[in-house]
Write a structure and sequence with these properties.
The N terminus is likely disordered. The chain has six helices and 32 strands. About 10% of the residues lie in helices and about 35% in strands. The protein is mainly β. The strands form seven sheets. It has a six-stranded mixed beta sheet, with no helix packed on it. The protein has a six-stranded mixed beta sheet with strand order 21-20-25-30-27-28, with no helix packed on it. Keywords: Apoplast, Copper, Glycoprotein, Lignin degradation, Metal-binding, Oxidoreductase, Repeat, Secreted, Signal. Lignin degradation and detoxification of lignin-derived products.
């Protein structure tokens, strides 16, 4: 008897492949979970630097809870406000597609959750994985109200690098030896610069180099030879930070929840809001090694916290070594000087996408935004409310417009419900006056106008924004964050952007995908994205001292065609003003 043979015809083979792809897609949705959490915002006694303060926390934890989910999962997070301040929560870096109601910035996409009230944030993770974070988006509450948001790949999908033995989130923060909101209120009253923080922290702890802190220093246990993944988040309120671990190389594999071409480095730099995932191999003699973070400060003559926070990378076999007479005092990494822009720049330009990306080349909206500080003349000079430089008050702006947050409703609610008089859509696409942005700027250009101005984008339009720092008051690296989007960083440089020559140097092959990017101090950065997420989305400096001064604007992205390109209706429990 001849053995029977079975041959797939081309059409049946294609059908089988389509069926398998459909079943795989179906399985991916089947394993997606919905995570339910309760966040109680409350006052909690927290002791740091020898003193106990009544600190605003989530669930009594500082930092707050770490959320662990997978790509495709949904979350429902009920926030109950038991503090005495208004509060909102922002899920930093999440796209929130068609769902600005869950984004969280106060008076932008929602009214605040008032004391005693609740609001449930509901959203789905869509095609994002990596390290993000959540934080309060009301005044300076995010100084202590923040936590990690870790998005793992879908079940069955591996990392694009070797699986680490362990993972550790490291949240870099700032600590004031007083109520941070009092610090903000004092600066708002005087018009001067806010007091600098008293310590930096790693996972809420200052570390060995501060008073009354040694016993609680964070420890990262490792076995010799193993590779671990560190998920590093700059959750500091006002400070860019260098980070390093003594005698160890760090391999960068992701930034802002987007995978990167791996590269090794001794030091990384993160602006507030940015995240970086690094692999570390425990390949040094068993001992204790400090992980440390200190300031990267670009503003001239500005007060800042020039201290160093530490955690300890602790080889488990180090105890045996110390018994043999070896020193148990951890080695301290050599961190860059606080003003080492060369090191910060050399690090940042190494971050690239893993392979060629699809990037907009035909630009529909070519925008040029100058960003920076300004000064407002006082009505009563030499008064307690006039403590800025030369009898002025500090201000900040984008394209000479200092952003004013509404107080009677949110921008998104006003837009959705057709409430007039809350905002205008005449934010300028270019500076109202052209000048030598990084040179000697005439004093008459130092004072911005004030307004709640939005810039309107059509759904699906391709957008390029060049963010140009200015030398008004001081040049500075401003970490700019765009809500509701991530974007490709196609170029950067120092001095004034040249539209005739600089675009030729753009990286249109493998630029990094970010949600927060710094302007070079005295320079510029160019970003591109497609406006495929309808709603009102805030763009602002993530130095909160600058945000409250007006260094912000918002995009109004119009609905496209049909429900899949339109904002979903607001939830029934959306807070009202």
């Amino acid at each position: 008897m001849e053995a029977s043979s079975f041959t797939l015809k081309p059409w049946s083979s294609c059908l089988l492949l389509c069926l398998l792809a459909f079943l795989t897609l179906l399985a991916s949705f089947a394993v997606a979970e919905t995570h339910y959490h309760e966040f109680v915002v409350q006052a909690t006694p927290v002791k740091r630097l020898c003193r106990t303060h009544t600190t605003i926390t989530v669930n009594g934890q500082f930092p707050g809870p770490t959320l662990e989910v997978r790509n495709g999962d949904s979350l429902a997070i009920k926030v109950t406000n038991r503090a005495k301040y208004n509060v909102t929560i922002h899920w930093h870096g999440l796209r929130q597609l068609r769902n600005p109601w869950a984004d969280g910035p106060e008076y932008i996409t929602q009214c605040p959750i008032r004391p005693g009230a609740t609001y449930t944030y509901r959203f789905t993770i869509q095609d994002q994985e990596g390290t993000l974070w959540w934080h309060a988006h009301s005044k300076w509450l995010r100084a202590t109200v923040y936590g990690a948001l870790i998005i793992y790949p879908r079940l069955g999908s591996p990392y694009p690098f070797s699986m680490p033995k362990k993972e550790f989130p490291l949240l870099l923060g700032e600590w004031w030896d007083r109520n941070p909101l009092d610090v903000q209120r004092l600066a708002a009253f005087t018009g001067g610069a806010p007091n600098a923080s008293d310590a930096y922290t790693i996972n809420g702890q200052p570390g060995d180099l501060y008073r009354c802190s040694k016993q609680e220093t964070v420890r990262i246990p490792v076995e010799s030879g193993e590779t671990i993944l560190l998920r590093i988040i700059n959750s500091a309120l006002n400070q860019e930070l260098f980070f390093s671990i003594a005698n160890h190389r760090l391999t960068v594999v992701s930034a802002d929840a987007a995978y990167t071409k791996p590269f090794a480095t001794r030091v990384i730099m993160l602006g507030p809001g940015q995240t970086t995932d690094v692999l570390l191999t425990a390949d040094q003699p068993p001992a204790h090694y400090y992980a440390a973070a200190s300031a990267y400060q670009t503003a001239q003559n500005a007060p800042f916290d020039n201290t160093t926070t530490t955690a300890i990378l602790e080889y488990k076999s180090a105890a045996c070594s110390s018994k043999k007479g070896q020193s148990s005092v951890p080695a301290l990494p050599l961190l860059p000087a606080y003003n080492d822009t060369a090191t910060a720049t050399a690090y940042t330009v190494q971050i690239k996408s893993p392979s060629r990306v699809q990037i907009p080349t035909q630009i529909d909206e070519n925008l040029f935004f100058i960003v920076g500080l300004g000064l407002i003349n006082c009505t009563v000079p030499n008064s307690p409310r006039c403590q800025g430089p030369n009898n002025t008050r500090f201000a900040a702006s984008m394209n000479n417009v200092s952003f004013v947050f509404p107080t009677t409703t949110s921008l998104m609610q006003a837009y959705y419900n057709g409430v007039p008089g809350v905002f205008t859509t005449d934010f300028p696409p270019v500076p109202p006056v052209q000048f030598d942005y990084t040179g000697n700027v005439p004093r008459g250009l130092w004072t911005p106008s004030r307004g709640t101005k939005l810039y309107k984008l059509k759904y699906g339009s391709s957008v390029q924004i060049v963010l140009q720092d200015t030398s008004i008051v001081t040049t500075e690296d401003h970490p700019m964050h765009l809500h509701g989007y991530h974007f490709y960083v196609v170029g950067s440089g120092f001095g004034n952007f040249n539209p005739r020559t600089d675009p030729a140097k753009f990286n249109l092959i493998d630029p990094p995908l970010r949600n927060t990017i710094g302007t070079n101090p005295g320079g510029w950065v160019a970003i591109r994205f497609v406006a495929d997420n309808p709603g009102v989305w805030l763009m602002h400096c993530h130095l909160d001292a600058h945000l409250v001064l007006g260094l912000a604007m918002a995009f109004l992205v119009e609905n496209g065609n049909g429900p899949l390109q339109s904002v979903i209706p607001p939830p029934a429990d959306l807070p009202q003003c």
